[in-house]
Fold these 2 entries.
Entry 1:
Amino acid sequence: MTQPFLSIQGIRKSFGTVTAVKNVSMDIAEGEFMTFLGPSGSGKSTTLYILAGFQDPSGGDILLNKKSLLSTPSHKRNIGMVFQRYTLFPHLSVGENVAFPLRIRRRPQAEIADRVKAALKLVRLEGFEDRVPALMSGGQQQRVALARALVYNPPVLLMDEPLSALDKKLREEIQFEIRRIHQETGVTILYVTHDQEEALRLSDRIAVFSQGEIDQIGTGPELYSNPATRFVAGFIGDSNFLDATVLANNAGKAKLSLGDGAVVEGVPMHGTSAANGKASLMLRPERLSLSRVSVPSSIAVTVRDITFLGNNIEVSTATPAGVELAVRLPFGHEAISSLARGEQAWLAFDAASVHAFV
Amino acid sequence: MLLDFDKLGGLRTSLVALVVLVCLFLILPIVFIAALSFGSSQWLIFPPPSWTFKWYQDLFADPRWLYSALTSLKIAAIVTVLSVVIGFLAALGLDRGRFAGRDFLRALFLTPMILPVVVLAVALYALFLKLGLAGTTLAFIIAHLLIALPFSIISIGNALEGFDRSIEDAAILCGASPWQARLRVTVPAVSHGIFGAAIFSFLASWDEVVLAIFMASPTLQTLPVKIWSTLRQDLTPVIAAASTLLIAFTILLMIVAALFRKGRKA
């Protein structure tokens, strides 16, 4: 990417003594679906509001097509936005809501009628022009809001947790719609959510926010298989963490002692650690294999519970030190056919496919 | 519900009786005045010996009554417009502003409601004398605006509180400048509050008498002042006729307000 479409450069934002956004930088390509993922208070929404122009950054710059956005007031940025709450204008019909941005831009009447119709068709609400927002469901209202945000062909569409007020089933339905609309329009989307499943389902790339900073930017599979920090590892997908002692660390490959004499070699190590330093080892539940007999470099555990989850089975185990480790095995796996609570088992894993963090 | 009306038994009768009594207490004086205004007795005898429109004819024959009614209408109309505009801006500031002394300011805006009107009247009269404004329409308007504003600020402020600011933000991102967004989105969205503010501001000025007595001059009198000064000279059923019309107009406004509120809910 030599000429990024949208470039966020070192954005900072402080509220008094509190720093909400520390140093956020990223380049976004035209037509990309980028998601800001993080817990509440991680700075993802603040970053989005700075893009919208509702807040001024304390430092840094935002370039759209090489031009700084910061000196442009919100209403002249020509950006589309869908909010967390329902923001349809209550006194206007659905058609007039969608027409509003075009009326403000003083477009001719015929063009407004055509574009409102096309925008409502895009969100599959054809013929809803005369409805009143108050009488529509939450999902319909957010789809109208989406039509209103897209009707003037903004180069960038911001979405601030637009589905958080909807129930799970409806949320998944509209996620699918958003994906389709993204593909049909090719609009660049910046999407804020705290729901990792939603982020994985929708995004081309995900920026994981933590405490006002971006921990990692990457595609879903990249973040899942190669998390850069312990926070990312814990936030994307399910994971177990086990305390370990670093015996040696060579070029990012560590030799770790897991206690009880278990030693693993060649574990990808993130961050620098002195010999005998502490580290935590991340183990994905589905990457662990369970064995009834002791195998080399494995962790001895006691089975605490076995839960049937449909297509797989989760075995809760605990190390002698009391650390809980979950293992997920496909349904019908031989190792669990006769497994019972309280029994001894050993967990083994491929050292190259796990990660250790300082 | 614990106090379900249907389960009150014997208490129910006495409760209904109490309600009827309270209603009669509120309505009877009005009925009295209206009845007397159509009564033929010069001395306001009740029940009226016979019925007549004479007092209404007298009322409309005297241009001073009509003139004072028009004065009332003019002042109330100007006060209504100013009260709604200033009230909207003040309520917006109190709702959106994050500044020191905001709560103090909110309380300050409402003091005309708590302050005895006569105290306010004396203070304003002294001030207007000093400024050479005594007896002018401007003085009238300022005085009535003071007591009308709290109604506007409360009514519009409540409406704004129930209005999600994100809606205004959405309008801004749609391309509307902040003031365009407020005028085209926020104002219509809080129109019920603005309507309530207008009705109450109008009424606050329309039937106000204490401030009006202080602000009036022989040539500038509102309808309540005219009633008051006529009453002090002699007791004539023309006053009852004027009062009846005043009340009728007020009731009409309340009905309009109620219909508007009902229309909004439907």
Entry 2:
Amino acid sequence: MRTTILAAALTLQAAQPAHTNTTITAVPGIKVGHFTLAERPTGCTVILIDGDAVGGVSQRGGAPGTRETDLLNPLNMVDKVNAIVLAGGSAFGLEAATGTVRWLEEHNLGWPAGASRVPIVPAAVLFDLPVGGNPRIRPTAECGYKAAAAATSAPVDEGTVGAGAGATVGKFGGAGRSTKSGIGSAAIVLPNGLVVAAIVAVNAVGDIIDPSNGKVVAGVRNPDGTFADARKLVRAGGSSPSRAGENTTIGVVATNARLSKALAARMALMADDGYARAIAPSHTNGDGDTIFSLATGRWDGTADITIIGALAAEAVSDAVVRAATQATSVAGIPAARDLRR
Amino acid sequence: MKRPAIRKFLIALIAVAAACSHEAGTNDTLTSIGGVRVGHHTLAERPTGCTVVLFGGGANAAGLAQRGSAPGTRDTDLLRPTSAADRIDAVVLSGGSAFGLDTANGVMRWIDEHNGGLFSRGTDVPTVAAAVLIDLWVGGKPQIRPDADCGYRAAAAATTAPVAQGTVGAGAGATVGKMTGLDRAMKGGIGSAAVARAGGLRVGAIAAVNALGDVVDPQSGAVVAGARAEDGSPADVRKLLRTGAPLRRSSVGENTTIAVVVTNARLSKADANRVALMADDGISRSVVPAHTSADGDTVFAVATGAWNGVADVSVVGALAADVLAEAIVRAVRKATGAAGVPAASDRPRQ
């Protein structure tokens, strides 16, 4: 009898490892590091590739801040990237990528260019300058260097950390009604070995919606702590559109599948549907919504791009919802988990 | 009067009242926007056809979001903000795959014949953009497809009446939910919705829904029509995708969702393109998966500028996404079965 129970327990343990990684580091070869500034809630997050990966991007928000996105156009030559940087600090935060480039050069990683190697580091920023005091505090090259140095394959920390430290959502109802958001991650692992995963720093004008039931997860707050639902505000006409300079959702989807550069771009395009499903409204003129894709090619199986893209959209909407549910209150802006009490 | 007679009289009275109130202006479709006319023509030989959206003439601003991987389009390049065109006269949605682009030639001819005032100088040409969906496999005879005559008749039939929805026009041969096999697909169609805000801003949409994926109601997350399991019940491709269930390899010859959103706001051409881009989120929310390698998903946006108020482009875009998702859900709810493909309305409501 005791043996049977022990055997059953062992089987259970084998089937479900104690620490199942449901974040983007479940993709073999993907490491993530955060660095959060102490002076103000802001920071940066580096998605570091062990070696390199084919990259793509979908940039559809109206107020972007980006670096090396033209390089990811399938018509252009370079088809491998070494790291992606997500940062707070508006356009100033693009400096974080400079630190990541330095870290990669020190480790001899980059695109072979004659005698040297040039690290390819696309980046996107979100606009969190008004959050938590001194807007002159923003992620610098040092932030990008430290985040790269801190990168590991452990399950990713989520919530009010890294590029999500100063992120907020629900700004369609005017100032003072937003909810704290952050950075979230999710992974889908199929029995055949295909892995598709996402990490997203969510700083949207819009509300966060759970696409599985249509409910608001975080967004414009009513005085009593309930959510007003931006979708209703927009229809009723009682909303004040948010300005550029306060928003933006940025993220990365990664797969272990082998994709051409054009298909990596299609994966990013379909992944972007995850923003549309989990954020309402999304891709506004006040958002710089951008999503990068990475294909490491370490899995030997084959999968249709439609399946990979569909899973990428699912992983992205999961990650967006987690960014809202895992966030903690900061700088007087309550998180959804604190409102629920 | 005896009791049954009174009852009959009252029922008749209620019916008349209902009909009157409907005619009095509860148009919640695209034609509720001033200056917009819609006409369908459905072929008799096979379930396919075309739908024309006509604009009143004069200046407007148009934009485009083309994000599906297998598109069939015409005059979309001129909608880019860097292109010169400053007016669009019609948008044609058609079945028949790339062959169906011929419908736009018939619409050109109709506009040329009927808008002498606008084009009297003889140097101006009508601007007619078009997008097609692929329904050749539905109903046998793939050589039957909408041609220039279909486009001409749809333009001639265009009215400001509430738009007919379901298995008609460009939606006649449309199907959805093809990821578990064509034999388990459900009927798609054409749908329309509109919103009117206090103050006068209006945004409307029309969509011909022929997606590879399922149609989902974004308000509840529930599947409205889509891939069916072996027993005919909805399979929900979101679940199948996440569990790695074997799915049919998608083919480019079967799908595509095409749509037009219109607002009465005054927008620049760049802003009209932003509205198209945001409207496209309505496809993302109501079609799962959307924008696949086998869909040619395309959205046109037109701003008539007839309303003198001021609207933020993000507000117009958000409403456009909302009404487009609603139009897509209506397209499958109003569809009726055709060529052996069952529709959501065939099943008793739960």
